[in-house]
Amino acid sequence: MQFKKLNNDVSIPMLGFGTYKIDSSDVDAVIEGALTDGYRHFDCAHIYGNEKAIGEAFQKASIKREDLFITSKVWNEDQGYDKTLAAFEQTLKDLQMDYLDLYLIHWPNEDNFDLTLDTWKALETLYDQGKVKSIGVSNFSEEQLEKVFAMAKVKPMVNQIERHPYKVQKELGDFDTANGIVNEGYSPIGHGHLILEDPVVNKIAQAHGKTAAQVVLRWHIDTGFVIFPKSSKVSRVKENFDIFDFKLTDDEIEAINNLDQDKHLNY
């Protein structure tokens, strides 16, 4: 495993496990398999509707809480100072935990950004209280981050954004890095049938004796992004973790960067 240091010196595993769209009835088996394969970083969210099942799965596991890195997010309808605090407590209750490692604002409120700023104040309160070790945002633009910087007592530690070879996010990623914010990429292989069939990716995969998915995930790591691919398939979960025994060359990274189409694959 490789780690990144957040701007408050908290270490975050660069490879995590995504829990989006995992049905509650499948959570036990999926979480058990992920833990067995070595995953310790899990990306959760209230809106995914499975945090209670995930909490129960962790209770059954033999992994110590301090060896896990758990992220969750406050959903749009829970934004605002008091509502955010209440939503956080519900997430803690569902996950059966005393603290989170990272708590994010899931989306900025485009219509009322002042509400989002109040949400950030609530995250700062939770951070000051020690209920969460680090705080950040998701899907924020440079302009929206600047507005947070202008009022924040605690600077965001993470910005979680859509990122894959067809949406490289160079400008936003560079902006985050310049401001001490760690980049996280969700949907790291986009819709796999598109990216995993790309001839450039497959040529690089052949050169390393790896799969196309492993090459794309390694590209994220080699370009400094924290990622959390999601799969309910046991073989794919194991495959996604097997990316720490090789590195891409600068030319290979550039070849994948050049696939950028600024293309959203998530709607």
- How many beta-strand runs? 10
Helix content: 40-55%
Strand percentage: 5-15%
Secondary structure tally, helices: 11
Written description of the protein model:
The record marks 73 as: Lowers pKa of active site Tyr. The chain contains eleven helices and ten strands. By secondary structure, it is α/β, with parallel strands linked by helices. It has one domain (3-257): TIM Barrel. An eight-stranded parallel sheet has the order 3-4-5-6-7-8-9-10. Helix 8 packs across helix 9 (212-222). The longest helix has 16 residues, at 113-128. The two termini are 31 Å apart.
Quickly describe the structure:
The chain is α/β, with parallel strands linked by helices and 267 residues long. It is built from 11 helices and 10 strands.
List the helices and strands and how they pair.
Layout: E1 3-5, E2 11-13, E3 17-18, H1 27-37, E4 41-43, H2 51-60, E5 69-74, H3 81-95, E6 102-105, H4 113-128, E7 135-138, H5 142-151, E8 158-162, H6 170-178, E9 182-186, H7 192-195, H8 199-208, H9 212-222, E10 226-227, H10 234-241, H11 250-257
Parallel strand pairs: 3-4, 4-5, 5-6, 6-7, 7-8, 8-9, 9-10
Antiparallel strand pairs: 1-2
Helix pairs in contact: 1-2, 1-10, 2-3, 3-4, 8-9
